[in-house]
Design goal:
Elements: H1 22-31, E1 34-37, H2 42-52, H3 54-57, E2 65-68, H4 71-74, E3 103-105, H5 118-128, E4 132-135, E5 139-144, E6 147-152, E7 156-159
Parallel strand pairs: 1-2, 3-4
Antiparallel strand pairs: 4-7, 5-6
Length: 163
């Protein structure tokens, strides 16, 4: 993600931010055109976004583009589902930041994640009990001013759309 021709790229280490004076880094976040958030463990990422204070900034970043990959996308959802819980947060549940009102089942039909089939996505979605999308690596979910658009050259499905 950092090699896409950006004019400049900065890196924030979320686990270090709580020990740094906010005046040092909040302005960098506010001045950024885009936040690139890579994958990993969604609940660990969520925990440190909250602990660092970064999550508190999201409502005020109206003109900032958020680009999440894998867990970087899942962290914005209400829940990730038990299937994706690796690290257990202090809350003990699977709740994430809830910036958007749907959940994401990533890596659909990926050779790197052979367990992420459509049948598994549908089973997972039944436990989420809310709107969700199963998406592959060629699919993005774009949210602008509350409107949701799926951009895809791949394979995806909206799950639990009526809820």
């Amino acid at each position: 993600m950092t090699e896409l021709g950006w004019k400049s790229v900065g890196v924030l280490e979320l686990t270090a931010l709580p020990s740094i004076d906010k005046e040092r880094w909040v302005s960098w976040v506010r001045e950024a055109d885009a936040l690139l958030v890579n994958g990993g463990d969604a609940l660990y990422l969520c925990h440190w976004m909250r602990e660092s204070g970064l999550a508190d900034l999201f409502p005020s970043l109206r003109d900032t583009v958020y680009v999440g990959l894998s867990a970087g996308s899942m962290v914005l959802t209400p829940r990730i589902g038990e299937d994706f819980v690796g690290w257990k947060p202090p809350t003990g549940d699977d709740s994430a930041l809830g910036v958007v009102d749907f959940s994401i089942f990533p890596h659909l039909d990926s050779p790197d994640c052979p367990e992420n089939t459509m049948a598994e996505a549908e089973r997972w979605a039944a436990g989420i009990q809310g709107p969700a999308y199963a998406i592959d690596a060629q699919t993005a979910v774009k949210v602008t001013d509350g409107g949701v658009e799926v951009v895809s050259e791949g394979h995806w499905k909206q799950l639990n759309p009526a809820q």
